[in-house]
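Everyone, study these two lines:
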Amino acid sequence: MHHDFWHQRWQNQQIGFHQDEINRFLLAHFQALGLQAGQRVFVPLCGKSLDMHWLLAQGYQVVGAELSQLAVDAFFTELKLAPEITQSGPLRHYRTEQIEIFQGDFFALTQGQLGSVDAVYDRAALIALPDEMRKQYVQHLMSITQTAPQLLISFEYNQSLVPGPPFSVSKPEVSAHYEPHYVLTELASTHQEKGMKGQYPAEETAWLLRPR
């Protein structure tokens, strides 16, 4: 996906991927990671997700990565926060006491910039990317997080019926990407008869990924 695609989606407010409620799998299964308040959670391709509001309310330190400056600005506006903004290489670094977001190309984010994280929450990153980019994403994510444990949410449907994003990522594909490095546990899965764009059947699955 070219950067212009996502910039245009945010510019035109074509953000159907932005959920207007906290993800049910996050609420039900985040505790499986066994984190304590104050530990640091990375949210890749975070947008202005309400899930980050919830993570903050639980007392976690949150760090996100997001391409769109419009999304990042909207997130801090909704929280009524005025972050410190600095330049960190090619990325803009937004920071308050409890949250920081790196705005720019995810693949430009380094482990040195990100720092140590205790877990990753991926609801909308893997499924936001087309097939040819997902392997690169997984490798970069594991590199910059030092293979931190993850709560991952995948989404599967008949890709021939409608183009992504979100893209269909099958359970075998999740295993192929992550099993060499993680022990995968399927926490829950739900079938939605009209889960894809309100028209097509889809299955959403929550995974716990623990480093081997």
Remarks:
- The mean pLDDT is 91.
